[in-house]
Amino acid sequence: MPATDVLDGVRVLDLGIWRPAPFATQLLAEMGATVTKVEPPGGDPMRMFPSLYRTLNERKRVVELDLKSDDGRATVSELVVTADVVIEGFRPGVADRLGVGHARVFELNPTVVYCSISGYGQDGPLSDTTGHDLNYQGWTGFLAARAPEINRPGVPVGDLAGGTYAAMAICAAVVRRDRTGRGTRIDVSMADVLLSWAAPEIGGALASSTDPGTNFPGYGTFGCADGFVTLGIVSEDPFWRDLCDVLELGDIRSLDVTARARRGPELHQRIEIATSARTRDELTAALVARGVPAAPVLDAAEAARTDHFIERGVCRLEDGEISLDHPVRFE
């Protein structure tokens, strides 16, 4: 049977924006699922990259709904009732506030497969921490094993890995639902997935480079007095202002994304000078407390002993040895 037919008849409701959830549903669409994608008023922000947007969303029916309005919630509820799968990629708690959290969706459709993709999962000490792909790599030991690439964002491995695992888990849950009539809640953490990939390669040396590598001066890996931190600011002005506050760079605080791109290498160097005077863990704590997407560059051994991953159950310490469990939850 052709791959495009294997999910024929499966109806998927995609509530995601940017890359992880839409990548997962694109995989499902490519295997024959019928995907309806709900975008906020004005569309998915990924539309600013037209080619990438097409790659992630071709084969889908796209509708714009304001989930903060009564009409928008009524319409999405109708879509939920007829769906086999609902997938969302918000930070924990946002789906509930928009009326499409798992509890509400199961009230409307008890047999649905409900999948959440997030940076750090639905619970655990890091669950509410802001982040982007590079930050997830930093927390998990994945980045430390990519020595030649650490000063460049590169392929968004976390986004793609999370989307792939979500698609795989959804397929498994649909099979179980067809056999048992039971719905499933799936919790995919991109960081959990990356840790499950990186931890078998304990170690990894960091390489140095004089090339900043990007015109996004707040996105990359930056040296500290005793290690490295990752910053994940792409185009978000509020994150940039908070970063400048923490690093005491008030003279460049008001620059918008266009101005920052024009002065990328210069600003990148300014950030490097500021971070080099701080210790890794102290700076990470200060940035995270302000809501800046930041993470330390941990090696895999450090990452596997982090409270967050142990509490999440993806890592277990037994007699001092690290054991890994499957990084996606089925409930």
Radius of gyration: 20 Å
User: How many domains make up the coordinates?
Assistant: 2
- Structural class by secondary-structure content: alpha/beta
Can you give the helix content as a percent range? 40-55%
Number of helices: 14
Shape: globular
Main-sheet strand order equals 3-2-1-4-5-6-12
Q: What fold name stands as the CATH topology of the largest domain? A: Rossmann fold
CATH superfamily of the largest domain: Crotonobetainyl-coa:carnitine coa-transferase, domain 1
**Can you identify the CATH class of the largest domain?**
Alpha Beta
Write the CATH architecture name of the largest domain: 3-Layer(aba) Sandwich
Largest sheet: 7 strands, mixed
3D structure, described in words:
The protein has 331 residues and is α/β, with parallel strands linked by helices. The chain has two domains: 9-195, Crotonobetainyl-coa:carnitine coa-transferase, domain 1 (Rossmann fold, 3-Layer(aba) Sandwich), CATH 3.40.50; 219-296, formyl-coa transferase, domain 3 (2-Layer Sandwich). Helices cover 40% and strands 17% of the residues. It has 14 helices and twelve strands. It has helices at 20-30, 50-57, 70-81, 94-97, 102-108, 133-140, 157-180, 190-198, 237-247, 257-262, 264-276, 280-289, 300-304, 307-312; strands at 11-14, 34-39, 60-64, 85-88, 113-118, 184-189, 219-223, 228-232, 294-296, 315-318, 321-324, 328-330. The strands form three sheets. It has a seven-stranded mixed beta sheet with strand order 3-2-1-4-5-6-12, with helices on both faces. Strand 7 and strand 8 form a beta hairpin. Helix 7 crosses helix 8. The longest helix is centred in the middle third of the chain and has 24 residues, at 157-180. The chain starts with 10 loop residues before the first strand and ends with a strand. The model is unreliable at 202-214 (pLDDT under 50).
